[in-house]
Amino acid sequence: MANFRYRKRSKQTAWNRELDYTQRFLVASTYRFMRNFLERHQGHLNDDSFFVPVAERMDLESLRRLLTASAAPALRRVLLELGKGEKVNLARENPITLMHKLWEHPGSNQRFRAALSEYLDTELLMLQDSLQQDPAPETKRFQELGGFFKLSESECDLLLLRRLTEGFWKCGDWHGAISYGKFNRISCALGISETELRHMTKSDARLRKLECLDTDLDFNRDLLPYLCGADDTPLEENYFARYNGELLPWDFFGDLAEKHGAVLSALLLNKNRTDGLHILFYGVPGTGKTSFAAALAEKLDRTAYFIKQDVRNRLSAIQICELQRDRDSSLVVIDEADKLLDCAEMNFLGLRRTNGDKGELNAVLDSVKTPCIWITNTPANSLDASSRRRFDYSIEFKPLTADNRERIWSNAAAKHNIKLTAKTVTVLAARYPVSAGGIELALRNCSILEGKDVEEKIKKIMEPHCELMRSPIDKTSEIAREYILDGLNIKGDLILPEIIEAVRNYFAVSANDLDKPRMNLLLSGPPGTGKTEFVKYLGKQLVVPVMTKMASDIFSKWVGDTEKNIAAAFDEAEDSRAILFFDEIDGLLQNRERAHRNWEVTQVNELLHRMENFSGVMIGATNFIHNLDPATARRFTFKLEFDYLDDGGKQIFFERMFHTKLNSEESKRLATITNLAPGDFRTARQSLFYLGKEIDNDRRLAALEREAATKGSSAQKMGF
Predict the structure, then answer these.
(1) Is the dihedral of CA 305, 309, 310, 312 positive or negative?
(2) pLDDT per residue over 443-473, tens digit each?
(3) What is the pLDDT of residue 693?
(4) In whole angstroms, what separates CA 526 from the centre of its chain?
(5) Where are the alpha helices (DSSP H) in 447-577?
(6) How does strand 372-376 pair with strand 330-334?
(7) 333 — phi, psi (to 5°)?
(8) What pLDDT is stored for residue 405 in this prediction?
(9) pLDDT score of 429
(10) How far is CA 466 from the centre of its chain?
(11) Which one, of 544, 593, 548, 539, lies nearest residue 569 by Cα?
C-alpha cells in the first residue's frame, strides 16, 4: 500500500495524505538533502526537529523496522526507557524523539544512518516516479527561478535547501547567524565540500549579489509568494519594467538636447566599449530628468528599463536586469536614486550622515556593463566623491527658467491641439513656476472645464496645483492698474522713460560684444515711493521676466551657503534671461567696515563680484542707501532716487487712485500733507474700502493725513 503513497488517490486510502501529494517536490528535495547529510555529517544534532519531515510521514511498521535495524534489543529498551517486563509499544513513542536518540547514541548511530538512508532511498524512488508522471507546480516554478537567475546546478541546490528551511524543514541547526557549524551542516546536506560552498557564497557570487541569499545564507522570503504560487506576477516585473509612460519628442527638450545630445549619442552608440557606462542626471525635482532619459532611449533605439523602486535591494535589481536583457539594446534607468547614491543628510546637530553601502554601490558601478542612467534630486556635493568619479557623464538639471517653461507650454499646447497666443504663453510661463508635468496636467484637463477662455481654465487647475506643490505663483509681472510714471518724483536729471530705453538698448546689444558695459540699477528712497512697481513696469514694457529675490531667499544659517545662494540667483537669472531684482538689497550689501564676522564680509564680496561679471540686468532697491557698502556705488550703472511726491504728483495719484476730482480747497489741503508716497494712496483707499459708508474727498484726505502722521524719522516699510 505504501507504493501508492505519493499518487493522487482518494482520501480514504490509508497512507495517502493530501499533504504528501501537494508537497511532493518539497518532500523529495528534503529527503535528498537528508540522505546526503546522513552520509557526511559526523557531529551532534542540537535540535531533534531535523527528523520532522521523515518522522511525520513514516508509518508504525516502517518505524519498527528502522528501530530493529538500528539497535540491539538491550539498547532498544534503554532508548525507550522500558521497565523490567515492559513491552515495546511504538504507538506511544514520539518518532521524532526516538530518531534523535538513535542518532545521538554511539551504539546505534552508524546502523541508524544506514537504515534511515535505505528508507529514504525507497521513498525517493516513489516520489520521483510520481513527479515524473505528474510534475508538481513548485517544481516548474523553482526551475524557472533557477533559469531566471542563471544559476548552476549546485547554486540551485543551495537555494532550494535554504528555501526548505524557511517554514518546511524547521530545524534549529539550520537557522541563526552564520557559524562554522551551520556552514558545515549546509555543505553536508548539499553533498559538496566546504571549499565549494565558500566559493558559491562569497559576497560577489551570484546568489549573494542578486540577493537570493543574505549574509547568513538565509533565503530571500520575497521569493516565496512566487514559488508557492500565491503571486503569478512574472519574476522580472518584481525587479524592473519596460518604460511605458508618455514619450516626449526629442526636440521638446530644446537647449538641453542640443547641448548634451551629441555627447550622449556618442557614448551610448559606441559598440567597442568593453567597460560599463554610467550617466548621472541630478538636480531639483520636476525638471524633466525622467522624461529626458526615456526620450534619449527612444532616440537611440534602445529599450529603457526602469528599476522598481519598491524592491528590497535595488542594486541587486540592476544586476538582475543586466542578466536578463541584452546590453547592446538596453538602457537601465535608476530613478529616485537618492539613497542608493549615498546622498548626505543633515541630522539635528547639523552633522553629515550617509545612507547605504558605499562599497556595494561602487562595486555595481564598476561591474555592470549595460549602460545606466542614475537620476537623483540632490545636488552633486551630497554624493560621495568616490561614487561621483565613477560616472562617465553627468547633467545638472537646474530649475526651469521662464524660457524653458515657455517652450514647454508651446509644445504641450500643440500636442493637445490647444491654441495659445505667444503673449499668453509668456504670461503663463512667468506666473506659474511649475514642472513640465504640471504644465501637461493643466493642458490635459483644461478642455473639460468651463470658462470664458483657455487662460481662465488653466488658472483653475494651476492655482491649486501650485498650492499643493508649494510653488508660489509669481505675480511680480502684474502691475498695479494705477501705476504710472507720471507723478513719480525722481531726483536728478534722469527720467524713467530714458532708463527704460537704456535697458532696452542693453538687451539689443549682442552678448558676444566684449565691450558691452554692465547694466546694474540702484533704486533708493523712502518706502512706498514706487521702486518695486517700477521694476515690474520695466519688465512688462520690455517683455522680460523679473526674478525677485529678498534677503530671506538668500540668507542661510549654514556658513558658506549664503554665498552659494547669491551665485545661484545670478546663474538662474542668466539662464532665464531675466531681470534680477534684489528687493531691500541693503541687507546683502551692508558696509563691511561694520562687519563683526568673516561671513558678513564674504557675502558682500560675492555679491560685488557677481555684479561685476553679470551678463544681465540687475536691479537693487533700498530704503536705506547710507547703509550700503561704499564700494557698491561704482558698480551701478544708474542710480535713481525716488522721493516723496511733489504737489503735482499728489494731485495725479489722488485722482487716479480715488477716481475723483479735487476742488481748489481740497487741492490746497492735499498740498499741506507732507511726505506722501504712491503707496500711501493705496493704503488709504484700502482702509476705506470696508467701512460701508459713503466716501467723500474729506474722508479720503483725512485718511491720507493719518498715513502722513504715522511717519517718523524711520518710516515703516511698505511696498507699492
Answers:
(1) positive
(2) 888 878 766 688 888 888 988 988 887 777 7
(3) 67
(4) 46
(5) 454-468, 496-508, 531-542, 551-554, 561-576
(6) parallel
(7) -120, 125
(8) 83
(9) 84
(10) 20
(11) 548
User: What pLDDT is stored for residue 451 in this prediction?
Assistant: 65
Cell of 151: 544559476
> What does the alpha-carbon distance between residue 659 and residue 1 come to, in Å, rounded to a whole number?
109
Q: Judge contact between 107 and 73, C-beta under 8 A.
A: no
Would you state the pLDDT for residue 12?
39
Minimal CA–CA distance to 325: which of 301, 296, 293, 302?
Answer: 302
HSE, side-chain direction, 13 A CA sphere, residue 113:
15
Buried b (16+ CB within 10 A) or exposed e, 23-55: bbbbbbbbbbbbbbbbebbeeebeebbbbbbbb
Task: Please answer whether residues 679 and 718 qualify as being in contact, where contact means their C-beta atoms are separated by less than 8 angstroms.
Answer: yes
DSSP string, 628-688: B-GGGGGG-SEEEEEE---HHHHHHHHHHHHT----HHHHHHHHT--S--HHHHHHHHHHH
Question: Hey, which residues does 393 pair with through a beta bridge?
Answer: 279
- Beta carbons of 171 and 55 less than 8 angstroms apart: no
What's the pLDDT at 638?
Answer: 92
**How many CB atoms are located within 10 Å of the residue 553 CB?**
12
Q: Which amino acid is at 52?
A: V
The pLDDT value given to residue 9:
42
State the pLDDT at residue 478: 53
**Rounded-to-integer distance, Cα 158 and Cα 154, Å:** 6
pLDDT at 175: 86
The dihedrals phi and psi of 621, each to the nearest 5 degrees, come to -120, 140
3-state SS, one letter per residue, for 551-600: HHHHCCCCCCHHHHHHHHHHHHHHHHCCEEEEECHHHCCECHHHCCCHHH
Number of residues in the chain: 720
Q: What is the pLDDT of residue 4?
A: 45
* Buried-state track 68-86, b at ≥16 Cβ within 10 A, e below 16: ebbbeeebbbebbeeeeee
Using alpha carbons only, give the angle 516, 520, 525 rounded to the nearest 5 degrees: 155
User: What parts of the chain have a pLDDT lower than 70?
Assistant: 1-20, 342-357, 450-452, 474-483, 510-515, 557, 559, 591-600, 692-693, 712-720
CA dihedral 679, 680, 681, 686 (to 10 degrees): 90
The residue type at 71: A
